[in-house]
Amino acid sequence: MTHSKRETERKYAAPSADDTSWLPDLTSVDGITSVVGKGLDELDAVYFDTDDLRLADASATLRRRTGGADAGWHLKLPTSGDSREEVWAPLSDTVPDTLRDLALSRTRGTEPRPVVHIWTTRSTQHLVDSEGSILAELSLDRVRAESLLATTTRASWTEMEIELAEDADPFVLDAVDKTLRKNGIDRAEHSSKLDRALEETGTGALHLPDRRAEIVVPGSAADEVLRYMDEQVQTLVNIDPAVRRGRPDSVHRMRVTCRRLRSTLRSYRAVLDRAVTDPIRAELKWLGGELGAERDQEVLVERLGTGIGASPRELVLGPVDARLQVWNVARASEARKRSLDALHSPRYLALLGSLAALTEQPPLLRKAARKPEKVMVKAILKEYARLAGRVAHALELSPGTKRDAALHQARKAAKKTRYATEPAHTSLGKPARRLGKRVKALQRMLGDHQDSVVARDALRNLALAAHAAGEPGFTWGMLYGQEQAVAERCERELPTTWVEASKPRLRKALVH
Question: What are phi and psi of 18, to 5 degrees?
Fold first, then answer.
């Protein structure tokens, strides 16, 4: 059994945990009417990580803690700003399988082991409003830490945490922060106890050295491309736990990230050696394909369900909703299993390792050291030329299956062109963003067309199944006709949409 919560807190330097005369009266803060003491807790936590501290490098923590109201295993994953997601599991002697899986994209299959032991004596106070509701929790902590790895160094310090209560307005933290700063109490230099313990016990020296800084020229094409690659790899790692738990839109986001990485490695072959990157591109394609079944089913069932829901009830004949649900359950279950099997496979872990190695020690080519403007403009225009050729080919064809296939290929080329512009936003600025925006509009229109092609195939199969069961096929045929109309509209709009995406001044702006 596990459960999770969103934890939003800020840490501050604290002169002392015994003499609190330095702490201002927080009832002066707007909304806080009383500060209620809740006594002392003795907390004993062992933090787990890989030998090279992969969890810490990814701003995640895994600990086994006794004492306090939430004794158990805690996995903390970064979200945004001052917030993290904390996943709790009951106490056990070994790392719970659920938490091990959720940390897998960061550990890459290496078993976490104890790295730091931290003891905390905590004095807790609740910041309460006029109605008796808890707005935040203030903790004064006396901390002792000891390394459990090669070093035996110990450290101790005092710190203060202000944690927002569940469902409380975040303005509380800002208001408290303002009062604390006015009274000379600054934010802590470290974001967590573990970060400080790693530094002060010498354990942090086990972090892998940053060799990339030794070979990448600041401000170069490689610098721009790798910065973008870092963002996408981090997104892939961060979204992994959400995919494992079936969170909404998570599969889609992971699949898009795979596409972005693949496209970047393809478009910027002049920067990164394809002898190294082509095998990684192939593995990203595999992962995207494994996730594709689940994502495609999500899109398809939502599209068909929306069509049924928007239809006048007198035109919905027979058990249409029930048939769609039964059809979806069987397909969705199989697709879900395929996604999870991929994420638990050695192949996936090897891909994560390859991506980490690629960004840490990139295989740079000669052009990597050049200024990004020339290298990136050339890459973008090359992708754009391929897109233009595919659109022209599709426009030459008559409506039918061949044109449908050609438009799908044009859609893929539009994505690649759009993704090629994204690493160039810093160096090329507005022209790259504007071209990406125009191409995205084309991509969406072509995507609507492709979704219609897929939906029509599904509707035909559903109609055949309904007919075989003696059910009316009218509604399925009506929806098929609506999807056919969508495809025809997209094909009519294609020339105009393409003209907007292919204006000469957009390309000239890139060059100049």
Answer: -95, -55
The pLDDT of residue 420 is above 60: yes
Contact 10, 177 (CB under 8 A): yes
For residue 453, with 0-12 CB atoms within 10 Å meaning exposed, 13-18 middle and 19 or more buried, which class applies?
middle
Count of CA atoms in the C-beta half-sphere (13 A) of 342:
25
Angle formed at CA 207 by CA 201 and CA 210, multiple of 5 degrees: 135
Amino acid identity of 53? L
User: Residue 355 and residue 478: Cα distance in Å, rounded?
Assistant: 47
Which residue is associated with the tokens 């599991």?
A: 89
- Rounded CA separation 261/355 (Å): 10
Q: What angle is formed at CA 39 by the lines to CA 34 and CA 42, rounded to 5 degrees?
A: 140
Predicted local confidence at residue 229, as pLDDT: 97
Burial environment of residue 412 by CB neighbours within 10 A (0 to 12, 13 to 18, 19 or more): middle
Residue type, 424: A
Q: Token digits for 269? A: 């072959």
Q: What are phi and psi of 362, to 5 degrees?
A: -65, 140
Tokens representing 490? 């997209």
Read off the pTM.
0.90
CA angle, corner 155, sides to 87 and 80, nearest 5? 35
Q: Which residues contact 111 (CB under 8 A, 6 or more apart)?
A: 50, 95
Q: How far is CA 451 from CA 351, 444, 488, in A?
A: 30, 10, 13
CA distance 182 to 187: 12
Distance in angstroms (rounded) separating the CA atoms of residues 215 and 377: 23
Q: Are 180 and 24 within 8 A, CB to CB?
A: yes
d(CA 136, CA 125): 9
For tokens 């907007």, name the residue.
500
Q: Does position 512 have pLDDT exceeding 60, yes or no?
A: no
Amino acid of residue 19: D
Report whether pLDDT(370) > 70.
Answer: yes
Burial class from Cβ neighbours inside 10 Å (0-12, 13-18, 19+) for residue 101 reads middle
SS3 102: helix
Question: Contact, 339 vs 251, CB < 8 A?
Answer: yes
Residue keyed to tokens 């990684």:
280
Q: At residue 290, what is the residue type?
A: E
- Count CB-CB contacts under 10 A for residue 282: 11
Residue 262, H or E segment: helix 250-267
pLDDT, tens digit, for every residue of 382-405?
999 999 999 999 999 999 999 999
The pLDDT, as a whole number, for residue 1 is 74
CA terminus-to-terminus distance, the chain:
59
DSSP, collapsed to helix, strand or coil, labels residue 103 as coil
**Burial class, 411, CB count within 10 angstroms (exposed 0-12 / middle 13-18 / buried 19+):** buried
Structure tokens at 396: 């030459």
3-class SS of residue 411: helix
